[in-house]
Amino acid sequence: MGDRWLLPVGLVLAALLLGAALLGPALSFHDPDLQLDPVAGRHLPPGSARWLVELSDGRTLLAERWEAGPDGGLTLWRLGRSETLPARAARPGEDGSPARRVRFALGTDRFGRDLAARLLAGARISLGIGLSALALALTVGIAAGSLAALGGRFVDTVVMRGADALLAFPRLFLALAAAALLGPGLATVVTILAVTGWMGVARLVRAELLSNQEREWALAARASGLSPARIYFRHLLPNSLSPVLVDAALRLGDTILVEASLSFLGLGVQPPRASWGSLIADGRDALVSAWWVAAFPGAAVALAVLAFNLVGEGLRDRLDPRRAAAGLSPRTPC
Question: Is this model's pTM higher than 0.70 or not?
Fold first, then answer.
């Protein structure tokens, strides 16, 4: 009874993260890769407000205050000093003013880029990689587990021994080795995460299929003359997917964490693209002076892992009627 809050809370957190990722372009006021001002905009703390001046040559400057001169020039106060721009050096905005007020809710990084915009862009990349890799791992794992369970003893031995061999290596080390050999990139990261994540799915699917094919309803389906393919797709596979859904939610958080680790080490998403792991890496050299650069993306990773773990634990509690009837709390996966 006390664990019924797990699934609703997890779903709410996951929906907020996915919503932020999908609506990121609409929520961002700046291009996440745009260096607004690498000098005056470097490591601005959260909540900082500045005047943004767009120059005719395409550059942007940030100033604490500004003042228009009688000759059409513009005087900016930046980093405690004044700087005068000639007439028509700044492009007027929609209201005709040469400067507009901007606020950086989460601060800026060392290149003067808006951290909130980069965090939202990182959500799209990190969650997109996690979901894509999970979908590919589930496809391979379900196919391999089904083949092992229904393909005979020889096929079962070959598939499961191959899975055991890959499981003998820690997933992060295996992913690091593969990324170092194949090189960084979005497609490479998705492939690596899928290849290193299908084994547990295959073992789970195999165990469920072996158990279900001996149940009364499976025996009745075979006795009625249904083809093996129809028995598999209509009866065996659908009744074996409940634990796979639980495992998938738990694996999604782990996949996001592994992707963040690869990007943090420079073997995942490459600059200037933002992912949560690369954002944490950007702030590792300024953990004291500019703590927000690493703290906010680190909190996003922790929140994503927590959200999908809560969803997985809640699904496990809801989809296992025996545990619900016994009043047992969900177990933490190995």
Answer: yes
